[in-house]
Design a protein that fits this description.
heterotrimer; A alpha+beta (992); B alpha+beta (102); C alpha+beta (187); B: 102 residues; alpha+beta; Folate-binding fold; 4-stranded antiparallel sheet; 6 strands; globular; C: 187 residues; Gyrase A, domain 2; 2 domains
Chain lengths: 992, 102, 187
């Protein structure tokens, strides 16, 4: 932008902005210009803008109160399109850049004519607790239909984005010996002391650059300007290996030296200036051995009527805009102060050409003479006038009168920013402590690894702040450094106690963001909300995006007065992370959408992708659900085709995802004996056995087969779903209960790729793949195991079946599994080998009555699934004692049963409830049980079949029952019960 | 939060999976124990839910995969040490001494 | 003819430059296909004896078994637990006998070697541990963006990552994402 636009309130010198780089931006579609280094607030103030937004409840016009992260009023939206609409930016923290587009919030119609301002006219009807009291009329229906929609329309801060956050965020693990929170002069001084002692130091500063108020307050250090002194201190820290992170807010303190911080990397840059592939923000999870809280202090206002008018501002904010940005917020300035600090600001404004009147609340204030500044002692601001901007200030007290003013600055004292010092619970005393001398809360007693430096300690003058910084450095093992001499020091003093002026009422605001007033606090106290936590919830004081940074202390001081207690007795509410709002995306970091969690892939995943597979998630695994062949109408069509091909000739499926655990050692058999319900000592080498594991509470945990490969060598398989849990369970039992058992085991799930060949031609196909191995019924009988070789690699052949067919599982190393899979397809081509997915497998195992995770849901006993005979009574095993609980032998216990739809085409809905009558009532008093697994079409039965658990299961075989799904419009499905072993109940096929 | 693993040293808590209080050992192998036996009740169900020093099972699942018993103060979250689960019950006396010393 | 080994890192893992194109690559990565990896885990009470047996058979000095006392071909993953490279499972089993479990993990684990000037910045995104405290030769069983991963420090700016094979494609994708801002060169 070459053309320079006028900035009426910008002085022609001063500030640490770059006047060579004008920046053009918009606010509510109007074009403005500021300079590089401006915040949105300073740039708009430079342009004479006073009105920034509307308040939350009364929609009162609001301007700027603060100049930093504490700002409660000036929340704006940055809009880069519907997906990238970012509400609730504090104008005081938002750095402008070329082309930035911003909008005011929380109004209907133009900002200067908000239709909701009607709320303000009725404000005396909207006191604290108004909603709680009023909306009882008309009952719940009236709430939902009438009140809530109106309130929702009226309330809320900003508009949420309408689509997924398009930005990329990173999470960074950052480590340091010491974390310094706050890069003002105190934080930097401590950091330098620690860095010089050889510590690794990270300094996080939430503003755009290091230095804090020393940069512009006008004090000098050893004769240097603040900016020059800060710059050379930063160089020294970096030279000693320290890291300086500007634009980084430490938002939370957690146990054991863990801190959360967010670094804003993009928001101050134009799109073109953002480095490609970099994150918008970085979430630093900082691990530090020690911490220095150098978080500074936040100025507080005083309760008086009209103290929320645009143009009423904290004195420090007015001073910041003047000193840091060269923006003079008014020409006729009234300055209401309770302490000497106001005079520094008054002097600065006077020097900048403003006409200044100081209203000093103290009658006994020392005489200060500043050129051109008029001082009235013993008075307070009683009322500010001017709806869209201050025009006049009435004062009262020792004398009374009225002043013409276009700005009213308030210096009500300082609240140390103690928030972070009370986040953690790992010391006994974590709440801030009230110092009645300073009239402020200061950090609690800190532990050895913590220190505080600067104004957060309650120190007021720069020299005192530097002394606390040196003490903090000393406490944490830093090197002593020479402190600078501070010249042109600003005046400071303790404030006079004045939280609200006499006569402050329902237009005297404490929490500007929530429109909580002096009167609200008094009302809360009067109605019995005497605990500070209750008062907070009743009045909403201290809630929302600013968490009451400018309001809390004043609110609880007034509560103390109203209830006749000391402020120390009232205490503070609990400060919790985050210190300032952070986008949820930055906490998710990389883990969102498809990257939420990792996927696990089989070695033949790529082959399946290329051959029509549709995948389903099984835990982290992606498994083929079905393969779509030409002519398949839908998934069921594919699954039924795959089932028929397998039952009729030959199917192949990928079982690489099954959990596999290699177990070795002299006590391996004993270990298995203790894990499984059945006995393992008699299993010969070269044989597999089906095993059932219980949890210690006697319920079924998992099932699978374990093979004995050698004298002291076993190979266990688990279900895909429970693989990790079984491994963890084995580790727990071995280590916590039987650490002396001479056994070791390792997960080999990823080492082996495995496939199952199933169907009447499975043996012929296997023989072709392993011509040198005897795979006849004698050479490899049911539950037999052979270890052999394929192309020079180990191959393990298992004669086991899940589908109910004659079947084999073959495992080879995963590296060559793709090649082996292709070889199996080639070998099986003559029998039209058909790959099948989980859906076909599901049909086949339901037909066979085999259980999976749907049945083993953590509620069933061995008996319930018909495996009660699989108990060796001669030994102890996990869950044995508890498996004898009486409830397990209750005849009313639901046991597994098979269900068959009454006629072809009828559906059975999974999760449906089973009843013995179609008449109802369909509730828990009449229910017999529930459906666990459904095959929507069983070729065997030519209709839907299901597995279910019902009371007295065996008694119902052959009888008609009804399945009702309450979540599908109570549709009633007629079914017939029978044994769950629909297919080949005598195992003739698997043994053939 | 950091948890000490006897093998790996100080590690962030996300590497661990908690299981619960380690307050009673698994009853010795018997064969005819009954569900109502005190030893089983204590092992499976009885938890003191103490405010203060506790012993808890954690699995170093994203690490060395050892089960450890972590000594943690539930009032302050302070982790004061840990023992391999495989040594914990055998060193019960030692563990009691340790608790007495707190 | 020996069967072709399948690339476990997925189709996006291709040789060449990825991410930032300007300047030299910040991260270099390579994957060793066909590497022989054997996992050993000592039986209770046999860890020291197992280490002695490994020393006798292969000359590996694994000290008292701390994670810092490893070697490039014997990476410690837990107490008495190592990933050995360069010796097949039969040889290793013969060496450790009944002292330890020995299983082939040549297909089960994928080893990625990463190096380059941006390696510390990259690992700060994936690994929760403080690299500055690791001596060269140290191993750390931890996680790579929450995927179980054992890190081994080969040199100042060179690390081996061992991850489960089924996770390798996710690791590959996330490594591509995380290193894009530095520029990644895959060998």
């Amino acid at each position: 932008m070459s053309a320079r636009l006028p900035q009426p309130n910008r002085l022609d010198h001063g500030g640490i902005i770059n006047r060579d780089r004008p920046v053009t931006f918009t606010f509510d579609r109007r074009v403005y210009q500021g300079f590089e280094g401006d915040s949105l607030a300073s740039a708009l103030l430079a342009n004479g803008v006073k009105l920034f937004g509307r308040s939350f409840k009364y929609h009162r016009p609001r301007g700027i109160l603060g100049a930093g992260p504490e700002e409660p009023n000036a929340l704006v939206e940055v809009d880069r399109g519907p997906a990238d609409r970012d509400p609730n930016h504090r104008a005081t923290m938002l750095e402008i850049y070329e082309g930035l587009e911003t909008f005011s919030q929380n109004h209907i119609g133009p900002l200067n004519m908000d239709l909701m301002e009607v709320n303000d006219l009725f404000s005396r009807f909207l006191p604290a607790g108004f909603y709680y009291k009023t909306f009882f009329f008309g009952g719940l229906q009236a709430w939902y239909r009438l009140y809530e929609p109106i309130i929702r329309r009226a309330a809320g801060l900003g508009r949420p984005p309408l689509a997924a956050d398009p930005h990329h965020y990173d999470k960074i693990y950052t480590h340091a010996d010491t974390l310094v929170v706050g890069g003002g002069i105190a934080g930097l001084t401590t950091a330098l002391s620690l860095a010089k002692a050889g510590q690794s130091v990270v300094v996080c500063e939430e503003r755009d650059r290091m230095g804090g108020s020393a940069l512009w307050q006008g004090e000098t250090f050893n004769g240097e300007t603040g900016a020059a002194y800060i710059a050379h201190m930063c160089r020294e820290i970096e030279a000693a290996g320290g890291r300086l992170l500007p634009r980084t807010t430490v938002f939370g303190v957690y146990d054991a030296g863990t801190f959360g911080a967010v670094e804003r990397c993009h928001d101050h840059l134009t799109k073109a200036d953002r480095a490609p592939h970099t994150a918008r923000m970085k979430y630093h999870r900082i691990q530090a051995k020690a911490v220095v809280y150098a978080t500074g202090a936040i100025e507080r206002s005083v309760g008086f009527n009209g103290n929320d008018r645009p143009g009423v501002m904290l004195a420090s904010a007015g001073h910041t805009f003047l000193g840091k940005y060269g923006v003079r917020v008014g020409e006729r300035v009234s300055l209401f102060t309770t302490h000497d600090g106001g005079y520094g600001t008054a002097a600065a404004f006077s020097a900048a050409g403003a006409e200044v009147t100081v209203l000093d609340a103290r009658t006994d204030a020392a005489d200060v003479s500043i050129d051109g500044v008029r001082v009235i002692k013993g008075v307070y601001a009683g009322q500010a006038h001017g709806r869209m901007g201050v025009r006049r200030v009435d004062y009262d007290g020792a004398s009374s009168g009225s002043l013409d003013a276009d700005a009213l600055l308030v210096a009500g004292g300082w609240n140390p920013a103690v928030h972070l010092t009370s986040h953690t619970t790992d010391r006994r005393q974590s709440k801030p402590v009230y110092d009645a001398e300073l009239l402020a809360f200061v950090p609690p007693e800190l532990v050895d690894q913590e220190a505080a430096a600067g104004s957060v300690t309650g120190a007021m003058s720069t020299a005192d702040c530097l002394a606390t910084a040196q003490a903090a450095g000393k406490k944490l093992g830093g090197k002593k450094i020479e402190l600078p001499t501070v010249d042109q020091a600003l005046p400071v003093s303790k404030p006079m106690e004045m939280w609200a002026v006499p006569g402050a009422g329902d237009a005297a605001f404490l929490d500007m963001q929530n429109d909580a007033t002096v009167k609200d606090v008094k009302l809360a106290a009067q109605e019995g909300f005497k605990s500070v936590e209750h008062m907070k919830r009743y009045t909403t004081l201290g809630m929302a995006t600013d968490q009451g940074k400018t309001a809390n202390v004043t609110g609880l001081a007034l509560l103390a007065a109203a209830t006749g207690r000391d402020i120390a007795q009232v205490g503070t509410t609990t400060f919790r992370p985050p210190y300032t709002p952070i986008p949820i995306g930055v906490l998710a970091g990389h883990h969102r959408q498809r990257d939420y969690a990792p996927f696990r892939y089989s070695p033949v995943h790529a082959w399946a992708e290329d051959n029509g597979a549709t995948f389903m998630e099984a835990g982290l695994w992606m498994r083929p659900a079905y393969y779509t062949a030409p002519g398949d109408k839908d998934w069921l069509d594919s699954a039924v085709r795959e089932t028929r091909a397998t039952r009729g000739s030959l199917g192949i499926t990928d079982v690489s995802t099954l959990g596999k655990i290699d177990i070795q050692g002299p006590d391996a058999a004993e270990f298995l004996n203790r894990l499984y319900t059945n006995g393992w000592k008699t299993l010969p080498v070269g044989k597999a056995r089906y095993g059932l594991m219980l949890r210690e509470d006697g319920l079924v945990f998992d099932d699978g087969t374990t093979s004995r490969l050698g004298e002291n060598h076993y190979y266990m398989t688990t279900t895909t779903a429970h693989a990790a849990a079984v491994m963890t369970h084995m580790e727990f039992m071995h280590q916590s209960a039987w650490p002396d058992l001479a056994v070791a085991f390792a997960s080999v799930t990823d080492q082996w790729g495995a496939l199952a060949l199933a169907g009447p031609n499975a043996r012929a196909c296997l023989a072709k793949l392993f011509p040198e191995v005897d795979v006849s019924n004698d050479g490899l009988p049911f539950m037999g195991v052979i270890e052999t070789q394929w192309q020079g690699y180990t191959a393990r052949l298992f004669r086991i079946s899940f589908s109910g067919e004659l079947a084999y599982e073959v495992a080879v190393p995963a590296d060559i599994f793709d090649a082996f899979w292709q070889a199996a397809l080639q070998a099986g081509a003559e029998w039209k080998i058909t790959p099948y997915g989980l859906e076909a497998l599901n049909i086949m195992r339901i037909e066979k009555g085999h259980v999976t995770g749907a049945e083993l849901d953590g509620r069933v006993s061995m008996d319930d699934v018909g495996l009660g005979k699989m108990v060796s009574s001669k030994k102890d095993f996990v869950g044995r004692a508890m498996s004898e609980r009486e409830a397990f032998s209750d005849p009313d216990r639901a046991k597994m049963v098979g269900l068959v739809a009454a006629k072809p085409g009828d559906k059975i809905i999974g999760g449906g409830i089973v009843f013995d009558s179609a008449e109802g009532p369909f509730d828990y008093t009449t229910m017999l049980g529930y459906v666990t697994s459904v095959a929507q079409y069983s070729p065997l039965k030519d209709r839907a079949i299901a597995l279910a658990f019902i009371k007295n299961a065996a008694d119902w075989h052959g009888k008609t029952l009804y399945v009702v799904s309450h979540v599908h419009g109570k549709s009633i499905m007629e079914v017939r019960a029978e044994s769950p072993h629909f297919y080949d109940p005598n195992n003739e096929k698997v043994m053939a | 939060m950091l948890i000490f693993c006897p093998h790996c040293g100080m590690r962030p808590s996300e590497e661990f999976t908690p299981k619960g209080l380690a307050e009673a050992p698994r009853p010795a192998l018997g064969g005819d124990d009954r569900p109502e036996d005190d030893a089983w009740q204590d092992y499976l169900h009885t938890r003191t839910n103490k405010a203060g020093q506790t012993n808890e099972y954690f699995h170093h699942s994203l690490g060395c995969r050892r089960w450890i018993v972590v000594h943690r103060n539930t009032l302050t979250h302070e982790v004061t040490g840990s023992t391999m689960a495989s040594e914990f019950w055998q060193n019960q006396q030692q563990a009691q001494d340790w608790e007495a010393g707190q | 003819m020996s069967p072709v080994l399948k690339n476990p890192l997925g189709a996006k893992w291709t040789a060449g430059r990825h991410g930032k194109a300007e300047g030299g690559p910040g991260v270099l990565a390579s994957h060793t296909a066909g590497l022989t990896i054997v996992e050993v885990a000592a039986l209770p009470g046999q860890a020291q004896a197992m280490r002695a047996a490994l020393k006798a058979a292969f000359g590996m000095d694994l000290g008292a078994g701390s994670p810092a006392e490893g070697a490039e071909n014997a990476v410690c993953t837990g107490p008495g637990q190592y990933l050995l490279t360069g010796h097949d499972v039969a040889t290793v089993k013969a060496a450790v006998g009944d002292l330890a479990l020995a299983v082939d993990q040549s297909s089960g684990r994928v080893r990625l070697t990463i190096s380059g000037p941006a390696i510390a910045a990259l690992l700060a995104k994936t690994c929760p541990l403080d690299l500055a405290t690791w001596p060269v030769g140290a191993a750390h069983a931890s996680h790579f963006l929450h995927i179980a991963c054992t890190y081994f420090r080969r040199g100042d700016a060179e690390f081996d990552l061992y991850v489960g094979r089924s996770f390798a494609q996710s690791v590959g994708k996330w490594l591509l994402d995380a290193s894009a801002e530095f520029g990644l060169e895959i060998a």
